[in-house]
Design goal:
The complex is a heterodimer of chains A (225) and B (406). With 225 residues, chain A is α/β, with parallel strands linked by helices. Chain A is built from seven helices and ten strands. Chain B is rod-shaped, with a radius of gyration of 37 Å. The chains are: A alpha/beta (225), B alpha+beta (406).
Amino acid sequence: MGNMIEAEKIGYVYQSKYQKTKALTEVSCSFEQGRVYAITGKSGSGKSTFLSLLAGLDVPTEGNLYIDGKEIREIDRDAYRMNQASVIYQAFHLFPLLTVLENVMFPMELQHVAKKERKERAQAYLSKVGLPDALYGKMPNMISGGEQQRVAIARAMASGGQILLADEPTGNLDSQNEAVIVELLCKMAHEENYAVIVVTHNDKVAEAADVVYGMSDGRLEVVRG
Amino acid sequence: MFSYIKSDLKRRRAANLVTTGISFMLVLLLNLYFGSIRSYQTQLTELAENVPIFCQVTNLNGTLGNGLFISERVVEALEQSSQVKDLSYMTVMMAGEGDFQEAEYSKHLNLYVAGANNAEAVGELTNDMIHMESQDADSFFASDKMECIVNEKELAKRGWKVGDQITLKCYYYDPASEFHKVDIHPMGGVAEVTVVGTMEETTGKTNAIRTDVVIPGKTARNLFAQFGLSFFADMVTFHVRNPLQLNSFKEEMRDIGLMETSAEAGDSYTGRALTVRDGDFIASATHLRRSIELLQSFLPAVCILVLLIGYVVSYLAGNSRREEFALMRLQGVKKFQAAFLFLAEQMLLVLIGNVVGDLAAAPIVETLSGLFVVNGVLLAAYLIGAAAAYGRMSRGSVVYLLSAQH
Protein backbone atom coordinates (compact mmCIF):
# COMPACT_ATOMS: atom_id res chain seq x y z
CA MET A 1 0.00 0.00 0.00
CA GLY A 2 1.67 3.28 -1.16
CA ASN A 3 1.74 6.55 0.68
CA MET A 4 -1.07 8.84 -0.40
CA ILE A 5 0.39 11.85 1.33
CA GLU A 6 4.01 12.44 2.11
CA ALA A 7 5.37 15.47 3.95
CA GLU A 8 9.07 16.16 3.50
CA LYS A 9 10.55 18.62 5.98
CA ILE A 10 7.70 21.04 5.54
CA GLY A 11 7.53 24.32 7.36
CA TYR A 12 5.02 27.09 7.48
CA VAL A 13 5.42 30.71 8.48
CA TYR A 14 2.48 33.04 9.07
CA GLN A 15 3.52 36.42 7.85
CA SER A 16 1.53 39.44 8.92
CA LYS A 17 2.38 43.06 8.19
CA TYR A 18 4.36 43.38 11.38
CA GLN A 19 5.65 39.93 12.29
CA LYS A 20 6.44 36.44 11.19
CA THR A 21 5.30 33.42 13.18
CA LYS A 22 6.70 30.00 12.52
CA ALA A 23 3.84 27.51 12.83
CA LEU A 24 5.48 24.36 11.45
CA THR A 25 9.12 23.28 11.44
CA GLU A 26 10.58 20.46 9.37
CA VAL A 27 7.53 18.22 9.56
CA SER A 28 8.09 14.92 7.86
CA CYS A 29 5.57 12.11 7.85
CA SER A 30 3.43 10.04 5.55
CA PHE A 31 -0.18 8.91 5.42
CA GLU A 32 -1.60 5.90 3.67
CA GLN A 33 -5.06 4.56 2.94
CA GLY A 34 -6.84 2.21 5.34
CA ARG A 35 -5.53 3.78 8.49
CA VAL A 36 -6.67 6.31 11.05
CA TYR A 37 -4.11 8.93 12.06
CA ALA A 38 -4.50 11.15 15.07
CA ILE A 39 -2.52 14.34 15.49
CA THR A 40 -2.56 15.52 19.06
CA GLY A 41 -1.07 18.50 20.75
CA LYS A 42 -1.82 21.66 22.67
CA SER A 43 -3.70 24.57 21.21
CA GLY A 44 -1.42 26.67 19.02
CA SER A 45 0.99 23.79 18.45
CA GLY A 46 0.36 23.89 14.68
CA LYS A 47 -2.07 20.95 14.28
CA SER A 48 -4.75 22.87 12.39
CA THR A 49 -2.17 24.62 10.23
CA PHE A 50 -0.79 21.24 9.25
CA LEU A 51 -4.31 20.00 8.48
CA SER A 52 -5.05 23.02 6.26
CA LEU A 53 -1.84 22.29 4.33
CA LEU A 54 -2.93 18.66 3.94
CA ALA A 55 -6.29 19.93 2.67
CA GLY A 56 -4.58 22.10 0.07
CA LEU A 57 -6.03 25.27 1.54
CA ASP A 58 -2.53 26.68 1.67
CA VAL A 59 0.97 25.57 0.65
CA PRO A 60 4.02 25.06 2.86
CA THR A 61 6.54 27.89 2.94
CA GLU A 62 9.32 25.32 3.16
CA GLY A 63 9.75 21.70 2.16
CA ASN A 64 7.57 19.57 -0.05
CA LEU A 65 4.21 17.94 0.34
CA TYR A 66 3.34 15.16 -2.09
CA ILE A 67 -0.14 13.95 -2.90
CA ASP A 68 -0.05 10.65 -4.74
CA GLY A 69 3.50 11.49 -5.66
CA LYS A 70 2.79 14.96 -7.01
CA GLU A 71 3.99 18.09 -5.26
CA ILE A 72 1.05 20.04 -3.90
CA ARG A 73 2.18 23.33 -5.47
CA GLU A 74 1.96 21.74 -8.89
CA ILE A 75 -1.54 20.30 -8.66
CA ASP A 76 -4.95 22.01 -8.94
CA ARG A 77 -5.69 22.23 -5.22
CA ASP A 78 -9.38 23.08 -5.81
CA ALA A 79 -9.75 19.92 -7.87
CA TYR A 80 -7.85 18.03 -5.15
CA ARG A 81 -10.42 19.11 -2.55
CA MET A 82 -13.28 18.43 -4.92
CA ASN A 83 -12.22 14.91 -5.86
CA GLN A 84 -9.66 13.55 -3.39
CA ALA A 85 -9.74 15.14 0.05
CA SER A 86 -12.60 16.23 2.26
CA VAL A 87 -12.45 18.15 5.49
CA ILE A 88 -14.83 18.03 8.42
CA TYR A 89 -14.75 20.52 11.27
CA GLN A 90 -15.76 20.75 14.88
CA ALA A 91 -18.43 23.32 13.84
CA PHE A 92 -19.78 20.91 11.16
CA HIS A 93 -19.95 23.64 8.50
CA LEU A 94 -22.91 22.41 6.52
CA PHE A 95 -24.59 24.70 3.97
CA PRO A 96 -27.21 26.36 6.15
CA LEU A 97 -29.79 26.79 3.39
CA LEU A 98 -29.55 23.33 1.92
CA THR A 99 -31.39 20.36 3.40
CA VAL A 100 -29.49 17.40 4.80
CA LEU A 101 -29.92 15.51 1.54
CA GLU A 102 -28.97 18.53 -0.61
CA ASN A 103 -25.82 19.04 1.47
CA VAL A 104 -24.71 15.51 0.67
CA MET A 105 -25.69 15.88 -2.98
CA PHE A 106 -23.69 19.10 -3.36
CA PRO A 107 -20.18 17.61 -4.00
CA MET A 108 -21.68 15.32 -6.63
CA GLU A 109 -23.36 18.30 -8.30
CA LEU A 110 -19.92 19.87 -8.64
CA GLN A 111 -18.78 16.66 -10.30
CA HIS A 112 -21.74 16.86 -12.70
CA VAL A 113 -23.33 13.63 -11.50
CA ALA A 114 -26.90 13.29 -12.82
CA LYS A 115 -29.56 14.48 -10.40
CA LYS A 116 -31.25 11.12 -9.97
CA GLU A 117 -27.97 9.33 -9.35
CA ARG A 118 -26.69 11.88 -6.88
CA LYS A 119 -29.90 11.66 -4.94
CA GLU A 120 -29.68 7.89 -4.73
CA ARG A 121 -26.04 8.00 -3.76
CA ALA A 122 -26.63 10.72 -1.17
CA GLN A 123 -29.37 8.63 0.41
CA ALA A 124 -27.02 5.65 0.49
CA TYR A 125 -24.26 7.68 2.20
CA LEU A 126 -26.69 9.08 4.73
CA SER A 127 -27.92 5.59 5.42
CA LYS A 128 -24.32 4.40 5.81
CA VAL A 129 -23.65 7.02 8.53
CA GLY A 130 -26.85 5.89 10.25
CA LEU A 131 -29.03 8.94 9.70
CA PRO A 132 -32.77 8.17 9.65
CA ASP A 133 -34.74 8.97 6.45
CA ALA A 134 -36.96 11.39 8.32
CA LEU A 135 -34.07 13.82 8.65
CA TYR A 136 -33.16 14.01 4.96
CA GLY A 137 -35.47 16.91 4.26
CA LYS A 138 -34.54 18.85 7.40
CA MET A 139 -32.39 21.95 7.46
CA PRO A 140 -29.06 21.58 9.32
CA ASN A 141 -30.13 23.83 12.18
CA MET A 142 -33.05 21.50 12.89
CA ILE A 143 -30.93 18.47 13.72
CA SER A 144 -28.53 17.70 16.58
CA GLY A 145 -24.76 18.24 16.57
CA GLY A 146 -24.05 14.51 16.28
CA GLU A 147 -26.43 14.26 13.35
CA GLN A 148 -24.85 17.29 11.68
CA GLN A 149 -21.40 15.74 11.97
CA ARG A 150 -22.71 12.55 10.42
CA VAL A 151 -24.09 14.58 7.54
CA ALA A 152 -20.67 16.21 7.18
CA ILE A 153 -19.07 12.74 7.03
CA ALA A 154 -21.65 11.59 4.46
CA ARG A 155 -20.87 14.70 2.41
CA ALA A 156 -17.17 13.84 2.60
CA MET A 157 -17.93 10.35 1.34
CA ALA A 158 -20.02 11.82 -1.48
CA SER A 159 -17.03 13.63 -2.93
CA GLY A 160 -15.59 10.23 -3.83
CA GLY A 161 -12.10 10.98 -2.48
CA GLN A 162 -10.17 8.65 -0.22
CA ILE A 163 -8.70 11.21 2.15
CA LEU A 164 -10.74 12.46 5.09
CA LEU A 165 -9.27 15.28 7.16
CA ALA A 166 -11.02 16.01 10.44
CA ASP A 167 -10.35 18.97 12.69
CA GLU A 168 -11.63 18.22 16.21
CA PRO A 169 -14.63 16.30 14.81
CA THR A 170 -15.95 15.40 18.25
CA GLY A 171 -15.24 18.74 19.91
CA ASN A 172 -18.90 19.78 20.00
CA LEU A 173 -20.40 16.41 20.75
CA ASP A 174 -21.51 14.54 23.85
CA SER A 175 -19.81 11.26 24.71
CA GLN A 176 -22.48 9.11 23.06
CA ASN A 177 -22.26 10.96 19.74
CA GLU A 178 -18.49 11.12 20.10
CA ALA A 179 -18.32 7.33 20.18
CA VAL A 180 -20.55 7.07 17.10
CA ILE A 181 -18.38 9.48 15.12
CA VAL A 182 -15.13 7.76 16.16
CA GLU A 183 -16.58 4.43 15.15
CA LEU A 184 -17.65 5.89 11.79
CA LEU A 185 -14.19 7.29 11.12
CA CYS A 186 -12.57 3.97 11.94
CA LYS A 187 -15.02 2.12 9.71
CA MET A 188 -14.21 4.50 6.84
CA ALA A 189 -10.52 3.73 7.20
CA HIS A 190 -10.70 0.04 7.83
CA GLU A 191 -13.68 -0.96 5.68
CA GLU A 192 -13.77 1.73 2.98
CA ASN A 193 -10.01 2.17 2.69
CA TYR A 194 -9.91 5.91 3.48
CA ALA A 195 -6.89 7.67 4.87
CA VAL A 196 -8.43 9.36 7.90
CA ILE A 197 -6.36 12.10 9.55
CA VAL A 198 -7.85 13.53 12.71
CA VAL A 199 -6.58 16.53 14.61
CA THR A 200 -7.80 16.13 18.16
CA HIS A 201 -7.42 16.87 21.84
CA ASN A 202 -9.58 13.94 22.66
CA ASP A 203 -7.81 10.93 24.15
CA LYS A 204 -10.56 8.51 23.09
CA VAL A 205 -10.14 9.56 19.48
CA ALA A 206 -6.38 9.18 19.78
CA GLU A 207 -6.79 5.75 21.36
CA ALA A 208 -8.90 4.59 18.41
CA ALA A 209 -6.30 5.73 15.88
CA ASP A 210 -3.84 3.36 14.25
CA VAL A 211 -1.07 5.93 14.33
CA VAL A 212 -0.73 8.85 16.71
CA TYR A 213 1.44 11.88 16.03
CA GLY A 214 2.15 14.47 18.64
CA MET A 215 2.74 18.05 17.71
CA SER A 216 4.58 20.53 19.85
CA ASP A 217 5.79 23.98 18.84
CA GLY A 218 5.32 23.13 15.18
CA ARG A 219 7.32 19.96 15.29
CA LEU A 220 5.77 16.54 14.69
CA GLU A 221 6.84 13.31 16.33
CA VAL A 222 5.46 9.82 16.33
CA VAL A 223 3.78 8.93 19.62
CA ARG A 224 2.44 5.57 18.62
CA GLY A 225 2.37 3.63 15.43
CA MET B 1 -24.40 25.14 -8.96
CA PHE B 2 -27.46 26.97 -10.19
CA SER B 3 -29.67 24.72 -8.10
CA TYR B 4 -27.82 26.28 -5.17
CA ILE B 5 -29.00 29.73 -6.30
CA LYS B 6 -32.50 28.36 -6.71
CA SER B 7 -32.55 26.95 -3.17
CA ASP B 8 -31.08 30.12 -1.82
CA LEU B 9 -33.62 32.36 -3.54
CA LYS B 10 -36.38 30.16 -2.16
CA ARG B 11 -35.12 29.88 1.40
CA ARG B 12 -33.52 33.23 2.13
CA ARG B 13 -36.81 35.03 1.60
CA ALA B 14 -36.52 37.83 4.14
CA ALA B 15 -32.98 38.85 3.18
CA ASN B 16 -33.80 38.58 -0.50
CA LEU B 17 -36.93 40.66 -0.04
CA VAL B 18 -34.89 43.36 1.72
CA THR B 19 -32.34 43.44 -1.11
CA THR B 20 -35.06 43.53 -3.77
CA GLY B 21 -37.12 46.04 -1.80
CA ILE B 22 -34.21 48.45 -1.39
CA SER B 23 -33.40 48.18 -5.07
CA PHE B 24 -37.07 48.76 -5.88
CA MET B 25 -37.22 51.86 -3.67
CA LEU B 26 -34.01 53.26 -5.10
CA VAL B 27 -35.18 52.79 -8.68
CA LEU B 28 -38.47 54.43 -7.85
CA LEU B 29 -36.70 57.30 -6.11
CA LEU B 30 -34.28 57.81 -8.99
CA ASN B 31 -37.04 57.60 -11.56
CA LEU B 32 -39.03 60.16 -9.59
CA TYR B 33 -36.00 62.42 -9.38
CA PHE B 34 -35.07 62.21 -13.06
CA GLY B 35 -38.77 62.25 -13.98
CA SER B 36 -39.22 65.56 -12.16
CA ILE B 37 -36.26 67.09 -13.98
CA ARG B 38 -37.56 65.82 -17.31
CA SER B 39 -41.06 67.06 -16.53
CA TYR B 40 -39.76 70.58 -15.82
CA GLN B 41 -37.63 70.44 -18.97
CA THR B 42 -40.67 69.40 -21.01
CA GLN B 43 -42.73 72.19 -19.46
CA LEU B 44 -39.99 74.65 -20.39
CA THR B 45 -39.93 73.39 -23.97
CA GLU B 46 -43.70 73.49 -24.21
CA LEU B 47 -43.81 76.92 -22.64
CA ALA B 48 -43.03 78.38 -26.05
CA GLU B 49 -46.34 77.01 -27.35
CA ASN B 50 -48.38 77.52 -24.22
CA VAL B 51 -47.18 81.04 -23.52
CA PRO B 52 -46.42 82.52 -26.97
CA ILE B 53 -44.54 85.80 -27.07
CA PHE B 54 -46.53 88.41 -28.93
CA CYS B 55 -44.70 91.25 -30.67
CA GLN B 56 -46.02 94.42 -32.23
CA VAL B 57 -44.25 97.06 -34.21
CA THR B 58 -44.95 100.44 -32.64
CA ASN B 59 -43.77 104.00 -32.87
CA LEU B 60 -40.67 104.82 -30.88
CA ASN B 61 -42.46 105.80 -27.69
CA GLY B 62 -44.69 102.73 -27.91
CA THR B 63 -48.00 104.62 -27.84
CA LEU B 64 -49.26 103.49 -31.26
CA GLY B 65 -49.61 99.95 -32.55
CA ASN B 66 -51.53 100.75 -35.72
CA GLY B 67 -52.07 103.75 -37.94
CA LEU B 68 -48.34 103.65 -38.45
CA PHE B 69 -46.00 103.88 -41.38
CA ILE B 70 -43.90 100.71 -41.31
CA SER B 71 -41.54 100.45 -44.26
CA GLU B 72 -41.71 97.59 -46.74
CA ARG B 73 -38.04 96.82 -45.94
CA VAL B 74 -39.01 96.02 -42.34
CA VAL B 75 -42.00 93.93 -43.46
CA GLU B 76 -39.83 91.97 -45.90
CA ALA B 77 -37.08 91.45 -43.30
CA LEU B 78 -39.65 90.11 -40.84
CA GLU B 79 -41.13 87.84 -43.53
CA GLN B 80 -37.70 86.36 -44.18
CA SER B 81 -36.64 86.06 -40.55
CA SER B 82 -36.38 82.52 -39.17
CA GLN B 83 -37.13 83.85 -35.70
CA VAL B 84 -40.57 85.18 -36.61
CA LYS B 85 -43.83 83.29 -37.01
CA ASP B 86 -47.50 84.19 -37.53
CA LEU B 87 -46.60 87.50 -39.17
CA SER B 88 -49.63 89.71 -39.74
CA TYR B 89 -49.52 93.03 -41.53
CA MET B 90 -52.07 95.39 -42.93
CA THR B 91 -52.02 98.59 -44.88
CA VAL B 92 -54.94 100.99 -45.01
CA MET B 93 -56.02 103.05 -47.98
CA MET B 94 -59.09 105.06 -48.87
CA ALA B 95 -60.93 104.66 -52.13
CA GLY B 96 -63.88 105.86 -54.07
CA GLU B 97 -65.94 103.89 -56.55
CA GLY B 98 -65.28 104.64 -60.20
CA ASP B 99 -62.77 106.96 -61.89
CA PHE B 100 -63.98 110.31 -60.50
CA GLN B 101 -62.35 113.74 -60.84
CA GLU B 102 -59.85 114.45 -58.09
CA ALA B 103 -61.61 117.71 -57.31
CA GLU B 104 -64.69 115.71 -56.34
CA TYR B 105 -62.82 113.43 -53.94
CA SER B 106 -64.75 114.56 -50.90
CA LYS B 107 -67.98 113.31 -52.48
CA HIS B 108 -66.60 109.94 -53.61
CA LEU B 109 -63.87 109.03 -51.14
CA ASN B 110 -65.95 106.91 -48.77
CA LEU B 111 -64.53 103.40 -48.85
CA TYR B 112 -61.94 102.11 -46.38
CA VAL B 113 -59.71 99.58 -48.11
CA ALA B 114 -57.37 97.27 -46.19
CA GLY B 115 -54.60 95.21 -47.71
CA ALA B 116 -53.79 92.33 -45.34
CA ASN B 117 -51.90 89.04 -45.40
CA ASN B 118 -54.46 87.28 -43.19
CA ALA B 119 -57.88 87.81 -41.66
CA GLU B 120 -56.60 88.48 -38.13
CA ALA B 121 -54.64 91.48 -39.41
CA VAL B 122 -57.95 93.22 -40.20
CA GLY B 123 -59.11 94.19 -36.75
CA GLU B 124 -61.07 91.34 -35.22
CA LEU B 125 -61.89 89.66 -38.52
CA THR B 126 -61.65 85.88 -38.52
CA ASN B 127 -61.77 83.30 -41.29
CA ASP B 128 -65.23 82.10 -40.29
CA MET B 129 -66.59 85.62 -40.77
CA ILE B 130 -65.55 85.48 -44.42
CA HIS B 131 -67.85 83.83 -46.96
CA MET B 132 -66.47 82.81 -50.32
CA GLU B 133 -67.64 80.19 -52.77
CA SER B 134 -64.70 79.52 -55.05
CA GLN B 135 -61.82 79.49 -52.54
CA ASP B 136 -61.04 79.62 -48.85
CA ALA B 137 -59.93 82.68 -46.92
CA ASP B 138 -56.33 81.54 -46.49
CA SER B 139 -55.76 81.13 -50.22
CA PHE B 140 -57.41 84.50 -50.83
CA PHE B 141 -55.03 86.29 -48.43
CA ALA B 142 -52.03 84.42 -49.84
CA SER B 143 -52.74 85.43 -53.44
CA ASP B 144 -51.68 88.50 -55.37
CA LYS B 145 -54.75 88.60 -57.62
CA MET B 146 -56.84 91.70 -58.16
CA GLU B 147 -59.61 90.35 -55.98
CA CYS B 148 -61.41 91.65 -52.94
CA ILE B 149 -63.95 90.78 -50.31
CA VAL B 150 -66.51 93.37 -49.35
CA ASN B 151 -68.34 94.14 -46.15
CA GLU B 152 -71.88 92.65 -46.40
CA LYS B 153 -73.62 95.95 -45.62
CA GLU B 154 -71.51 97.88 -48.10
CA LEU B 155 -72.18 95.23 -50.74
CA ALA B 156 -75.92 95.51 -50.24
CA LYS B 157 -75.82 99.31 -50.09
CA ARG B 158 -73.96 99.64 -53.37
CA GLY B 159 -75.85 96.83 -55.09
CA TRP B 160 -72.65 94.86 -55.79
CA LYS B 161 -72.69 91.12 -56.17
CA VAL B 162 -70.04 88.50 -55.76
CA GLY B 163 -68.34 88.12 -59.12
CA ASP B 164 -68.73 91.81 -60.04
CA GLN B 165 -65.66 93.71 -61.15
CA ILE B 166 -65.49 97.05 -59.41
CA THR B 167 -63.39 100.07 -60.16
CA LEU B 168 -61.69 101.74 -57.20
CA LYS B 169 -59.77 104.96 -57.25
CA CYS B 170 -57.36 104.58 -54.32
CA TYR B 171 -55.74 107.18 -52.10
CA TYR B 172 -52.83 106.53 -49.77
CA TYR B 173 -51.73 108.16 -46.53
CA ASP B 174 -48.60 110.21 -46.90
CA PRO B 175 -45.76 108.88 -44.69
CA ALA B 176 -44.24 112.32 -44.61
CA SER B 177 -47.30 113.71 -42.78
CA GLU B 178 -46.90 115.58 -39.50
CA PHE B 179 -48.29 114.05 -36.32
CA HIS B 180 -52.08 114.59 -36.02
CA LYS B 181 -52.15 116.01 -39.53
CA VAL B 182 -52.17 113.09 -41.94
CA ASP B 183 -52.18 113.97 -45.61
CA ILE B 184 -53.86 111.79 -48.17
CA HIS B 185 -52.92 111.59 -51.87
CA PRO B 186 -54.28 109.77 -54.92
CA MET B 187 -52.19 106.80 -55.91
CA GLY B 188 -52.31 107.91 -59.51
CA GLY B 189 -54.84 105.64 -61.17
CA VAL B 190 -57.69 103.16 -60.71
CA ALA B 191 -57.69 99.51 -59.77
CA GLU B 192 -60.09 96.98 -61.24
CA VAL B 193 -60.86 94.33 -58.64
CA THR B 194 -63.26 91.40 -58.66
CA VAL B 195 -65.51 90.79 -55.67
CA VAL B 196 -64.88 87.16 -54.65
CA GLY B 197 -66.58 87.09 -51.27
CA THR B 198 -68.16 88.91 -48.39
CA MET B 199 -67.26 89.53 -44.79
CA GLU B 200 -69.39 90.08 -41.76
CA GLU B 201 -69.51 93.45 -40.06
CA THR B 202 -66.72 93.87 -37.52
CA THR B 203 -67.28 97.43 -36.44
CA GLY B 204 -69.32 97.53 -33.28
CA LYS B 205 -68.16 94.13 -32.18
CA THR B 206 -64.76 95.47 -31.25
CA ASN B 207 -62.74 98.61 -31.39
CA ALA B 208 -61.46 97.70 -34.83
CA ILE B 209 -61.62 100.40 -37.46
CA ARG B 210 -64.28 100.16 -40.10
CA THR B 211 -63.19 98.20 -43.14
CA ASP B 212 -65.28 98.12 -46.30
CA VAL B 213 -63.05 96.35 -48.77
CA VAL B 214 -60.20 93.92 -48.11
CA ILE B 215 -57.61 93.00 -50.70
CA PRO B 216 -54.70 90.53 -50.26
CA GLY B 217 -51.51 92.01 -48.78
CA LYS B 218 -49.42 91.17 -51.85
CA THR B 219 -52.03 92.75 -54.12
CA ALA B 220 -51.80 95.94 -52.04
CA ARG B 221 -48.02 95.91 -52.29
CA ASN B 222 -48.23 95.37 -56.06
CA LEU B 223 -50.66 98.27 -56.29
CA PHE B 224 -48.19 100.62 -54.57
CA ALA B 225 -45.43 99.37 -56.86
CA GLN B 226 -47.63 99.74 -59.93
CA PHE B 227 -48.06 103.46 -59.20
CA GLY B 228 -44.40 103.94 -58.29
CA LEU B 229 -45.09 104.44 -54.58
CA SER B 230 -43.34 103.04 -51.53
CA PHE B 231 -45.43 100.55 -49.58
CA PHE B 232 -45.98 101.18 -45.89
CA ALA B 233 -47.78 98.84 -43.49
CA ASP B 234 -50.26 100.33 -41.06
CA MET B 235 -49.59 97.68 -38.46
CA VAL B 236 -47.41 94.59 -38.06
CA THR B 237 -47.71 91.89 -35.41
CA PHE B 238 -46.13 88.47 -35.03
CA HIS B 239 -44.95 85.84 -32.53
CA VAL B 240 -41.44 84.79 -31.60
CA ARG B 241 -40.74 81.43 -33.22
CA ASN B 242 -38.45 80.11 -30.46
CA PRO B 243 -38.99 81.93 -27.18
CA LEU B 244 -36.11 79.99 -25.62
CA GLN B 245 -33.77 82.00 -27.86
CA LEU B 246 -35.15 85.37 -26.96
CA ASN B 247 -31.79 87.10 -26.82
CA SER B 248 -30.81 86.08 -30.31
CA PHE B 249 -34.28 87.14 -31.51
CA LYS B 250 -33.91 90.59 -30.00
CA GLU B 251 -30.48 90.94 -31.56
CA GLU B 252 -31.91 90.17 -35.00
CA MET B 253 -34.74 92.64 -34.48
CA ARG B 254 -32.17 95.33 -33.72
CA ASP B 255 -30.35 94.40 -36.94
CA ILE B 256 -33.63 94.80 -38.83
CA GLY B 257 -33.94 98.30 -37.40
CA LEU B 258 -36.58 97.76 -34.76
CA MET B 259 -35.52 99.41 -31.55
CA GLU B 260 -36.76 99.10 -28.01
CA THR B 261 -39.49 101.59 -27.15
CA SER B 262 -38.49 104.67 -25.23
CA ALA B 263 -41.01 106.63 -23.24
CA GLU B 264 -38.90 109.73 -23.75
CA ALA B 265 -39.22 109.63 -27.54
CA GLY B 266 -41.59 112.08 -29.21
CA ASP B 267 -44.85 111.18 -30.91
CA SER B 268 -44.59 109.90 -34.43
CA TYR B 269 -46.34 107.66 -36.96
CA THR B 270 -43.15 105.92 -37.98
CA GLY B 271 -43.17 102.27 -36.96
CA ARG B 272 -39.57 101.55 -35.97
CA ALA B 273 -39.80 100.12 -32.46
CA LEU B 274 -40.86 96.74 -31.19
CA THR B 275 -42.98 95.91 -28.19
CA VAL B 276 -42.22 92.36 -27.01
CA ARG B 277 -44.73 91.01 -24.52
CA ASP B 278 -42.38 88.52 -22.92
CA GLY B 279 -43.08 89.23 -19.23
CA ASP B 280 -45.26 86.16 -18.60
CA PHE B 281 -42.95 83.92 -20.56
CA ILE B 282 -39.83 85.13 -18.78
CA ALA B 283 -41.47 84.78 -15.36
CA SER B 284 -42.62 81.21 -16.10
CA ALA B 285 -39.37 80.23 -17.77
CA THR B 286 -37.30 81.66 -14.92
CA HIS B 287 -39.36 79.73 -12.38
CA LEU B 288 -38.97 76.50 -14.35
CA ARG B 289 -35.26 77.05 -14.93
CA ARG B 290 -34.69 77.66 -11.22
CA SER B 291 -36.58 74.47 -10.36
CA ILE B 292 -34.49 72.50 -12.85
CA GLU B 293 -31.24 74.01 -11.57
CA LEU B 294 -32.24 73.27 -7.98
CA LEU B 295 -33.02 69.65 -8.78
CA GLN B 296 -29.87 69.27 -10.86
CA SER B 297 -27.77 70.71 -8.04
CA PHE B 298 -28.79 67.66 -5.99
CA LEU B 299 -27.55 65.28 -8.68
CA PRO B 300 -24.09 64.63 -7.17
CA ALA B 301 -25.61 64.08 -3.72
CA VAL B 302 -28.30 61.77 -5.14
CA CYS B 303 -25.73 59.78 -7.11
CA ILE B 304 -23.40 59.48 -4.10
CA LEU B 305 -26.32 58.43 -1.88
CA VAL B 306 -27.49 55.80 -4.35
CA LEU B 307 -23.96 54.51 -4.88
CA LEU B 308 -23.42 54.39 -1.14
CA ILE B 309 -26.68 52.56 -0.41
CA GLY B 310 -26.10 50.15 -3.29
CA TYR B 311 -22.54 49.55 -2.14
CA VAL B 312 -23.38 49.10 1.54
CA VAL B 313 -26.39 46.83 0.94
CA SER B 314 -24.43 44.75 -1.49
CA TYR B 315 -21.36 44.64 0.72
CA LEU B 316 -23.31 43.64 3.82
CA ALA B 317 -25.29 41.03 1.91
CA GLY B 318 -22.06 39.64 0.52
CA ASN B 319 -20.32 39.69 3.87
CA SER B 320 -23.16 37.80 5.51
CA ARG B 321 -22.37 34.88 3.24
CA ARG B 322 -18.74 34.40 4.19
CA GLU B 323 -19.36 30.96 5.63
CA GLU B 324 -21.14 29.79 2.50
CA PHE B 325 -18.33 31.21 0.40
CA ALA B 326 -15.71 29.42 2.50
CA LEU B 327 -17.71 26.18 2.36
CA MET B 328 -17.87 26.39 -1.40
CA ARG B 329 -14.12 26.87 -1.51
CA LEU B 330 -13.70 23.94 0.86
CA GLN B 331 -15.70 21.78 -1.51
CA GLY B 332 -13.30 22.69 -4.29
CA VAL B 333 -15.25 25.47 -6.00
CA LYS B 334 -12.82 27.98 -7.50
CA LYS B 335 -12.66 31.50 -6.07
CA PHE B 336 -13.93 33.11 -9.23
CA GLN B 337 -16.77 30.60 -9.62
CA ALA B 338 -17.93 31.02 -6.02
CA ALA B 339 -17.75 34.82 -6.21
CA PHE B 340 -19.54 34.82 -9.56
CA LEU B 341 -22.28 32.57 -8.22
CA PHE B 342 -23.07 34.87 -5.30
CA LEU B 343 -22.68 37.96 -7.46
CA ALA B 344 -25.07 36.55 -10.06
CA GLU B 345 -27.60 35.74 -7.37
CA GLN B 346 -27.39 39.20 -5.89
CA MET B 347 -27.58 40.91 -9.27
CA LEU B 348 -30.64 38.83 -10.10
CA LEU B 349 -32.38 40.11 -6.96
CA VAL B 350 -31.35 43.69 -7.70
CA LEU B 351 -32.53 43.32 -11.27
CA ILE B 352 -35.92 42.05 -10.10
CA GLY B 353 -36.17 45.08 -7.79
CA ASN B 354 -35.19 47.34 -10.66
CA VAL B 355 -37.75 45.89 -13.04
CA VAL B 356 -40.55 46.15 -10.46
CA GLY B 357 -39.41 49.70 -9.67
CA ASP B 358 -39.35 50.57 -13.36
CA LEU B 359 -42.86 49.19 -13.80
CA ALA B 360 -44.10 51.18 -10.82
CA ALA B 361 -42.44 54.29 -12.22
CA ALA B 362 -43.65 53.66 -15.79
CA PRO B 363 -46.26 56.47 -15.71
CA ILE B 364 -43.57 59.05 -15.00
CA VAL B 365 -40.85 57.63 -17.22
CA GLU B 366 -40.77 59.44 -20.55
CA THR B 367 -37.65 58.14 -22.22
CA LEU B 368 -35.91 54.80 -22.37
CA SER B 369 -32.55 56.52 -22.13
CA GLY B 370 -33.52 57.89 -18.71
CA LEU B 371 -34.49 54.41 -17.63
CA PHE B 372 -31.14 53.04 -18.76
CA VAL B 373 -29.30 55.73 -16.80
CA VAL B 374 -31.26 55.00 -13.61
CA ASN B 375 -30.84 51.24 -13.84
CA GLY B 376 -27.24 51.56 -14.95
CA VAL B 377 -26.30 53.75 -11.97
CA LEU B 378 -27.99 51.37 -9.54
CA LEU B 379 -26.59 48.19 -11.02
CA ALA B 380 -23.13 49.74 -11.07
CA ALA B 381 -23.45 50.67 -7.39
CA TYR B 382 -24.56 47.19 -6.41
CA LEU B 383 -21.97 45.57 -8.61
CA ILE B 384 -19.16 47.60 -7.08
CA GLY B 385 -20.36 46.81 -3.53
CA ALA B 386 -20.78 43.12 -4.22
CA ALA B 387 -17.50 42.89 -6.10
CA ALA B 388 -15.75 44.56 -3.15
CA ALA B 389 -17.31 42.12 -0.68
CA TYR B 390 -16.63 39.01 -2.71
CA GLY B 391 -13.24 40.27 -3.80
CA ARG B 392 -12.32 40.68 -0.15
CA MET B 393 -13.60 37.21 0.65
CA SER B 394 -11.70 35.74 -2.30
CA ARG B 395 -8.48 37.17 -0.97
CA GLY B 396 -9.14 35.86 2.54
CA SER B 397 -8.09 32.44 3.75
CA VAL B 398 -10.77 29.74 3.83
CA VAL B 399 -9.52 28.56 7.20
CA TYR B 400 -9.78 32.10 8.57
CA LEU B 401 -13.29 32.56 7.13
CA LEU B 402 -14.47 29.31 8.68
CA SER B 403 -12.79 29.88 12.01
CA ALA B 404 -14.18 33.45 12.11
CA GLN B 405 -17.66 32.01 11.70
CA HIS B 406 -16.97 29.47 14.37
